[in-house]
Amino acid sequence: MLWILGLVLCGLLAGTRADSGALLRLGMDIMIHEVQSAMEESHIMEKMAAEASNPQPGGKAIKGLTNMKVKDVLQPVITLNFVPGVGIFQCVSTGMTITGKSFTGGNMEINVVLNITATDRLLQDEETGTPMFRSEGCEVILVNVKTNLPNNKAINKFVDSTLRKVLPGLMCPAIDAVLVYVNKKWTKLTDPMPVDKMGSVKYALASSAATTASHIQVDFSPVVQPQKGQVIRLATDGLVPEIPEGSAQDSQLLLSAAFITAELALLQKSLEVNLKDKRVGKLPQTTGTLAGFIPEVAKTHHKPKPLLIKVKISKPPKVTMKAGKSLMHLHGSLEMFAARRHGKHPKSLFRLETHFGLEIHYSVRENRLQMATSLDSLLSLSRESSSIGDFNETELTGFITDCLQKAYIPVVNDVLHVGLPLPDLLAINYNLSELNIVEDALVLGLKME
Ligand SMILES: *[C@@H]1O[C@H](CO)[C@@H](O)[C@H](O)[C@H]1NC(C)=O
Ligand SMILES: *[C@@H]1O[C@H](CO)[C@@H](O)[C@H](O)[C@H]1NC(C)=O
Ligand SMILES: *[C@@H]1O[C@H](CO)[C@@H](O)[C@H](O)[C@H]1NC(C)=O
């Protein structure tokens, strides 16, 4: 019976990936880094010591100990363990010296080493839906207690029981205060982030964040919204890409090819370059160069004239990924013009339908995914119209390739320069990511400084 239950459970777990958008896995390294930096940012240990030394009216004091001060708080050592389905079990090991006047009137000093343990349950913020932690079952475990008082059973028992009474009230709020800082770093997660002026991307959650034995997993169903018009739907054909095996402990972000394709649809219009657009400028070739391939051109253009090109993109760019290689497919038309003098409109020579593949080189800068392209291959070329009569367009392959490389690719790279936003959480610095192209996805291995 148990194995049937096991199969059912595995099936359920495997089926939890609803979307093929983006997936984030946070390993222990990131979580420890976050809790540690939250402790430092919150100055919680110093605050706690100060508060204990200046008890508020109504605050707990150690009975029989006056003028209490807490000092020499040891640098806390944090250990975390993932609790599948629950969250994180947290242990903060620290120590401190408590001083004061004892009931006998003498100076008393207690050196205490302790562990504070709690379960940080992973929940969803009710308003925003973003992940958040709430601590439960906080306990203070005394590891070692030393006093300057005579080593006397009654005194030891007294010190021990007073510490047990007082310390949880002192230390457990500190754990909560640290979580406030950690939780704050999730709040911007689902805010829309701009992609140039063309639209925005919102890392909406596909389901609530989950804890496994080795990770916190956040499954996204990203919303790609153009400035005007309908949300761009992610293509759901094909298999849901997976983070490769063999890196169980690491923190990773997976971005599917379907998601990057949807984001690039925002930039489709920008990839169309207009004749008047200065960025295109003059092509390095003239009608003279062209005449070398199409003799007809020489008949109509005796003197070499600069060439101008107009690129139209007829379909949203499509991104494909195979292990180690990613291509952007562009479908559209290239119209070639010869410049004319006296401010006359350039003359259209011919228009070609084309499909070409650009290889994408990914990198990360300023927490954005950057892409630069280079021409991979001209996949098809067919003549659509011509004012110079019939010619064999296949003869133009080399010439068109050259035009794309010299005049059009720089434009594409300029457009892509805006970068694509990455999920904003836990102040992750994506700068140090290791990028890896796998089947249908880009995987960023997240590294801490
Ligand atoms: C206190 O915490 C440390 C670090 O997690 C652990 O090694 C030690 O066993 C704990 N001590 C007690 C008494 O729980
Ligand atoms: C990423 O690294 C660059 C240079 O290495 C630095 O200028 C930039 O500030 C870093 N960005 C972040 C978010 O740390
Ligand atoms: C066009 O040119 C190509 C390459 O030079 C050649 O293989 C092809 O047969 C030509 N087609 C026609 C219709 O002439």
Describe the structure in your own words.
The chain has 449 residues and is α+β, with helices and mostly antiparallel strands. It folds into two domains: 4-186, Bactericidal permeability-increasing protein, domain 1 (Super Roll), CATH 3.15.10; 268-417, Bactericidal permeability-increasing protein, domain 2 (Super Roll), CATH 3.15.20. 24% of the residues lie in helices and 38% in strands. It has eight helices and 20 strands. It has helices at 2-14, 28-42, 44-53, 153-184, 257-265, 287-291, 295-300, 397-416; strands spanning 22-26, 65-71, 77-83, 87-102, 107-124, 131-147, 193-195, 199-202, 210-211, 216-220, 223-226, 251-256, 307-313, 318-322, 325-338, 347-365, 368-386, 420-421, 434-438, 441-446. The strands form four sheets. The protein has a six-stranded antiparallel β-sheet with strand order 9-10-1-12-20-19. Strands 13, 14, 15, 16, 17 and 18 form a six-stranded antiparallel β-sheet that branches. A hairpin with a 3-residue loop joins strand 7 and strand 8 (199-202). Helix 2 packs across helix 4 (153-184) and helix 3 (44-53) crosses helix 4. The chain starts with a helix and ends with a strand. Residues 1-18 and 277-281 have low confidence and may be disordered. Bound molecules: 2-acetamido-2-deoxy-beta-D-glucopyranose (3 copies). Residues 79, 91, 93, 115, 141, 143 line the site of one 2-acetamido-2-deoxy-beta-D-glucopyranose.
